[in-house]
Structure formats: C-alpha cells, structure tokens
Amino acid sequence: MLTYFKNIWIGFYSALVGMKITWKHIFAKKVTIQYPDERFPLPSNARNRLQLMPARCTGCTLCVAACPVNCITLETVRVVPDDPHQELYENGTPRKMWVTRYEMDFAKCCFCGLCVAACPSDAIHHTTDFEYSSLDRSHLYYKFQTLTPEQAEEKKRLFAEFKAREAREKEAKAQAAKPDAPRPEAEV
Amino acid sequence: MSEKKKIDIEYSQLDSERMRINVGPQHPSTHGVLRLEVEVDGEIVTDVVPHLGYLHRSFEKHCEYMTYPQIIPYIDRMDYISAMNNEWPYVMALEKMLDVKVPEKVEYLRVIVAELNRIANHQIAVATFGLDAGAFTPFLFYFRDREYIIWILEKLSGARLLYNYFRVGGVAGDVYPTFKEECHDVIAKVRKTNAEVMNLLIHNNIFIKRTAGVGILTPDVAINYGCSGPVLRGSGMAHDLRRDEPYSIYDRFDFDIPVGKGEVGVVGDCWNRNMVRMHEMEQSCRIIEQALEQMPMEGDVTAAIPKRIKLPKGEIYSRAENPKGELGFYIVSNGTDKPERLKARGPSFVNLSVIPEISKGYMFADLILILGSIDIVLGEVDR
Amino acid sequence: MQSTNFIWDLFGVNLLTVVAVVALPLGFVLIYALVAILAELKISAWIQERLGPMRTGPYGILQPVAEVIKLLQKEDITPDASSKLLYNLAPFIIFSGAYAAFAVIPFSSAFMPANINVGLFYVFAIGSISAMGIVMGGWASSNKYSLMGAMRSVSQLISYEIPAAMAVLSIVVLSSSMNMQEISHAQTGYFWDWYLFGGPGSWTKVFIIPFTITLAIAYFIASLAETNRVPFDIPEGESELVAGFHTEYGGIKFAMFYFAEYANMFVVSAIFTTIFLGGWNSPFGEFLQGPGWGVMWFILKSFSIVFVQIWVRWTLPRFRVDQLMYLGWKVLLPVSFICFFAISLFVMFK
Questions:
Q1: With a CB-CB cutoff of 8 Å, which residues 78-97 of chain A face chain B?
Q2: How is domain A50-171 classified at the architecture level of CATH?
Q3: Do B196 and A110 touch (CB under 8 A)?
C-alpha cells in the first residue's frame, strides 16, 4: 500500500522536475538565427559552390579525374604558336592550352573537395556561397570557360590547321630524309 | 481444473482477426525509409518483417569503378550522422596496405573529431528516441547542442555533415587557433545538457514506464545476431573495439566502457540501451579532454603518400568502433588504383536484423520505441 | 401560418437575445482558438529556446490566421474507400460537442448562455460526444492507423471520465449544487474561499484541503486525457499512428478538428476554474469584483490553466494505451474515491 502511494508520488514528482526545467527555459536566451536577416558567418574554408579561375586553369584534367561524380566537363585545345591571340597565365607564363569548355553541373556535385585538392595550380576553389538554388535544373549548369563558342570553334580550327600543317611538314621532312623511298601515291 | 485456468484456456482458443499494418516507408518514426510489415492482434505485435532497400544506392558496386580517394565521399553518405567515424576504418585499411605511418598530430586530431562526431551521433540517437516516446523538447535541446559540434567540424573540414575529412595518410584540414578552447566549450555544453535531459527525460517516470522492460535483448541473442555497439553493450556485454583491439592511439586514453547495468528495468531493455549512449557521451568527453591535453599543436597534417594511390595486390579487413557498432571494410585489391571488391559491414544493418526477435509480444507503441532504441540510419542499412 | 412561425413562438421577443447568446460564445471560441494556437506555437518555441513564428505580422502574431486561411484554401478531399457520410459528419460532431459545452460556462455573474441546474452533468454528457466523433472519423476513414486511433480513443474515454466525474462530484457534494453559476457564487470572497482550498467555511475546512487539492490535480490529469493532449494524446500518437484518427483529414475538416481541440481545452479549463478556482470571482474580496471584471477574471484563470496544459505538453513524453488505463482505473479512480469519501464525511459531520 505504501509503495503504491510512493510510486504515485515519484511519478508526479518526476513530472514536476521536468516542468521546472522547461519553465526555466521559457526565459532563457533564444538561439534562433533568423536566417535571411541574420546570418551565421561561415568559415572561410566552407565547401560550397565551386569557383574556377580561368586565368590559372591549365586544363590538365586532374580535377576531372579526381571527381567521384563526374560533374566536370573539360575540353582543351593546344595553343597554336602563330595564333595572333595569345594569353598569359596569372603567374606570367604563356598559356599552352585553351580551355574551350569547362562546365560544372552543380546538380551532380557532391562538394567533397577532391578537385580542389587535386588542382596543381590552385585554379579551382570553394566559395562560401550556398544560396544558388534554382527552380530549373539547367540553371545549375555552370560554364566557366572565357572563350565564346565562336572563339572556341576558331581555336579548334586553328589547331586542326596547325596539326595538318605539322603533319604535312613531317611528311615532307620524312621525304626529304629518304628521297629514294617510293611515294605512296605511286604504288596505287 | 480451477475456474480461472479454464477461462484462460478458453480465452486462448478465441482467435481474433489479425491486422497487417505497413509501418513505413513514409512514417514519422522509422528514421528513414524503412518499411516494417507489422502484424498486430489489437495492440499487440505478433509479427514484424522489415523490408529494406528503399534507399539502396549500390555503394559496393560503385566502389569498384572509383579510385581509392574517390570512395571516401561515398562512405560519408553511408552513415551520414557520424561520417567521421565511417571514414576512419576505410582510411586505416588503406594506410595499413600502403604501410604509411601517419603523424602523431593527425592521430590525435582523428580521435578528437571521431569522438566529437560520436557525441553528435548519440545526441541524435537519444533525441529521436525521446521523440518516439513523445517528448519533443529534449529533441530540440540536443539539436541545439549538436550544432556547436558541427560548427567545430565545419571549421576543420569545411562541411557540416559529409566531411570527407580523412585522407590517406592524414586529414584534410589543419587545426585553427581557437580549436582547443572551442572543444572545451562544447564539452561543457554537452555535459550541461546531458544533466538536464537526465532529469527532463531519462529519469522521468513516464519515460521509464514506457521504456524499461521493453524489447529485452539477452546477451546470447545479441551475440548470435552479431549485434555490436550500444545495442550489445546495453545487454551487459563490455565489448568495445577501442578497448579490445585498440586501433590508432586509443590505448593511451583512460576511459570506461559503459554497459547496461539495469538500474531501472532489465539489462538489455530499451532504457538501458539508451542509457549506454548517455554514458558514452560522457566517456567521449573524457577522451577528448585527454587528447586535447596531449595533442601537439605544431606539425604537418599529412604524411608523404604517392599522388596516385595504388594498393598492392592482396586483401584486408579493417574495423573500427562506430557510434552505432562495429563498422568494417573488406577490400580486395588487384594492384590497380581501383578496388576489385569492397564490402562494408554496417552496424545498423546487423543491429536491425534483431528487430523481429525482440519486438514480438509487445504493444504497437513499444515497437516504435524498440526501433528507436536500436538507433539505425537507413543510409547505412541499405547502402 | 402558425406552423412556419414556430421560432417566434418558441422564443418570442427574446429572439435577438437568443441569437446574441448563441453567437457570442461562437465568436469567443473562434478568437480564443486563434490566440491559443499562437500561444501553443510561442510557448513551445520558448521552452525549446526558439523564437517561434516571427514572419507573419509583428512577432508572428498572425501565424494562426495564416494557418487557418491555408487550411481553408486546401482541396476538400474525401477518400474513395471511406464511408462518406460518417467521414464528413465526424468533424462537425466533434466541433459541435466542444461548442455545445460553452452553453453552461459562467463567464460572469451576469452572463451565462444557459443557466440550467444540472450544468456539470450537461458538460460531462456533451463532452463524451467528441469521443463519438473521433470514433466515427477514425472508422470512416478506412485507414488502419485511424482505426487504431479510434479504438484507443474509446478505451481512453471510459478510463478518464469516471475519475473526472468523481472529482467533480466531490465539489458538488461540498457546494450542494450542480449549477455552475451557484458554485461560482458560493466561492465569493477571497482566494482561500475557493474550493481548491476547501471552499468557504470555518477553520475546520483545513481537514479537507489536502483532499480538494488532490482532487484538483486528479481532475486536471483527467482533463488532459479528455482533450487528447500530451501525455495522453494516444489517439493521435504521432510517432506511432502518424496522426491517429485524423490521418486522412485535410483542409477545412482538419481545421475543425484543430479548433475543436483548442475549444475543448478551454472547456475543461473553464470547468476547472469554476469548480476549483472560484469562477468569475476576484481572488481579493471586493477588489475588481463585478459582472464586467468577472469576465476578465474568468478568462484570466482559464487561460492560466490552458497555459499549464501547453506547458505540460512540451515537457512530458506520451503514455502507452495500457498505462493510461492503469492510471485511470488504478490510480486516479481510487484516489478520487478516497477524496470523495473524505469530503462526504466532512460534509456529514460538519
């Protein structure tokens, strides 16, 4: 009988203990950060949207190899020596590769930071910007290349011409080295 | 035959119609997309069949097409609540295969982040367990505190939840100047909230009535099912890889392994499983304090490793104590930069298998509590 | 001619009064429910160290209005497999059950919609109707969760009604009246004349003070169960039954469940106020005593009880269904019986 009343009292008392704690919290300082008005400062190394610095990118494709979700599309064209349009990297050395296409699909990106670690020239880095959500998936497809599509076509054409010329020169050189050799056309 | 016995037998022959209920995949208390096919007789659960696979991402097959460092972000997404702890056994396996010695500072840093993450995981476990019991306030107290832990981890690694912080031979980010003070600050906050929740929830009479003596898991059943972590320790078995098979530098720290003692209820019930987590938070705090004291602040955070990681031919099984239990990775290497086969032994998956065994005969509301006390993460169950 | 004019025959010149008396509590219920919803949002937030709604209106005070407007805009869905008539009827029954109880609540010495002699009896009779609505709604939804919620609700009803009735009956014995207005009148004076502290009388009443306080607590616990609030919200039981009996409801029908819950909270608080806290009486003798101030005192007292209900909700975990019955039958019922017995003895030998 005594334990019966004791149990009732313990049950009632433990509820009172809880209510005392919650009562204290009513007057405690609130921790809410009212987001768009107040912001919590993100650390500088926060891994959010990626940013490419085209002036540093050499087009080495190490980031493409490092990416676990294949969200980077990279296409490069070699710089042709006789192209009137020449560029320097940020550190002053002449550009060897045109980055005709550098596109990132942030719908795929998992923000792991492996591309940043892989980049030898520090061209790619994370920003603290996380507010880029969009209603259209195509808006998450970022293009970082500085060349316009026409320019890219131009570079590709120049490189193809350069290559063809090089091949011709090589052939000519080979012929010059071995004049006795029969010409391929002659056999036909 | 006495009158009462006769009535009992007659009553037992009355068979009422049973009802099959699908708990999940969309249900507030299945902690993800788990589906439990429950057969109830009125309120009494007579059968439970867990159905898995709603979150299956074919993690193991994916790994066969990825290089070793690329797998780490995927491992984060297994048990996304304790990602730091997940990465550890995998990285440890690679380091063992490559025979890399990681710097002293890295070992301490790894212990600290893993224990911080263990606290964060247990906070969620206890919080959601309280939520299953209907107590909403402790849930938000713990989420408030977990945020402080996440801020530290974010400053270290750059991400809030999916850190990708452990790298082969080191970690991705160095400590920042106020790291030690912030850690001590967080430990003080964790302890304060724990003391509060002890009074508000754990020792609340209603909570005790709901959880004590419910879902009793005896030690032999737990071992037969391969349970580990707080689920096993709640049954009174002091099995902890940090103590039994000390990896990294855990042999340098002084900490206890909490087991279910049955202060309230029976050893192996929901209350004791939950209590083990409360005690483990305190032990993690102790480990962090010791590690902070011993950790050298100077030095590099990466060892010299080859740029392109190629494992020698062979196989390895590496395991570590995850907050939820024993997490193991079995890696078969064929000498290239991609694994031939990678098998993960997830603690949540193994612990979940014990549900049908321990939830029969309890009431429907208890089933939810038993599920909550096991502390599963569906990301790891389905992988 | 005469047959069409039956309303006039029934009420005569009092028709306008009747309309006013009916409309006044309805307006009060609607406004009160909005305030109570806001209070619930804000108090729960403060307990959890949050700010709560801050965007709709200054400090978020228009949040409940926004919620109701949202619910009104939603599509009115009736599930195909449901029993249509019962499904659509259930919210109305629950709401009218809650609203009908306002008929006998003495807001002030001058205002009480229906001054009937068996007011307390009426409240208990009407209060059970809401459980009927829950069963109707739960069964008609043809959802297994709803069905389980409805079944739990029935078992809950029979467990808490009797202790609550015993608690009220003890006060009826003390005041020798079931008319809520008369019970309020009997407690005029200072706050120690309330039935919480044994009611008016000589020093001998100290013997029954522990019993009346126990009864007040017992009634309060039973009233939590009556309104389906935590720790007794097992018919809803969000963590196991998703939303219990109203899982399938949405839009305006859900809004009616929502309003009925808050209206019920006020009803049980008003009864608590009337029978234990002196109703519309001022706690300090003639200080601000009167019919006008009475409304203020009554609403103030009732709101503090509503506040305690909200406070309890955000503190305690939920009971299991068998534990509720244990509490109802094996704890509250014996305790209230003991108190009833003691008070009866006191009244006999006073």
A1: none
A2: 2-Layer Sandwich (3.30)
A3: no
Q: Which two tokens stand for residue B237?
A: 């078995």
Verify whether the Cβ–Cβ distance A68 to B66 is below 8 Å: yes
- Which sequence spans correspond to the domains of chain A? 50-171
Contacts of A34 in chain C (CB under 8 A): 51, 54
d(CA A34, CA A19): 28
> Around Cβ C310, how many Cβ atoms within 10 Å?
21
pLDDT digits (tens, 9 = 90+) for C33-83: 888 889 889 988 988 888 888 888 888 888 888 988 888 888 888 888 888
Chosen from B205, B211, B305 to mutate, greatest number of chain A CBs within 10 A: B205
Interchain contact, C49 vs A15, CB within 8 Å: no
Residues of C within 8 A of A27 (CB-CB) are: 46
Show the tokens assigned to C99: 């609203």
Question: Looking at CA atoms only, how far is residue B222 from chain A in angstroms?
Answer: 32
The complex's ipTM works out to 0.82
What DSSP designation does C330 have? Answer: I
The residue type of B193 is T
CA gap C102, C111 in Å, rounded? 12
What residues of chain A lie within 8 A of the CB of B157, using their CB?
45, 47
In 3D space, the residue among B216, B197, B222 whose CA is nearest the CA of residue B207 turns out to be B197
C158 φ, ψ to 5°? -70, -20
Residues of C in contact with A29 (CB under 8 A): 49
SS3 C185: helix
Show the low-confidence residues of chain B (pLDDT under 70). 1-15
**Cβ of B134 and C318 within 8 Å?**
yes
CA distance B342 to B333: 9
Say yes or no for a CB contact (<8 Å) between B210 and C238: no
CA distance B190 to B289: 13
Each residue's pLDDT tens digit, A53-104: 888 888 888 888 888 888 888 888 887 777 777 777 777 787 778 888 888 8
Question: CA A7, C156, C305, C347: dihedral to nearest 10 degrees?
Answer: -70
C168-171: which pairs have CB atoms within 8 A and are 24 or more residues apart?
Answer: C168/C120, C168/C124, C168/C219, C168/C271, C168/C275, C169/C340, C170/C211, C170/C212, C170/C215, C170/C336, C170/C339, C170/C340, C170/C343, C170/C344, C171/C195, C171/C212, C171/C215, C171/C275, C171/C276
Chain C interface includes A3 (CB < 8 A)? no
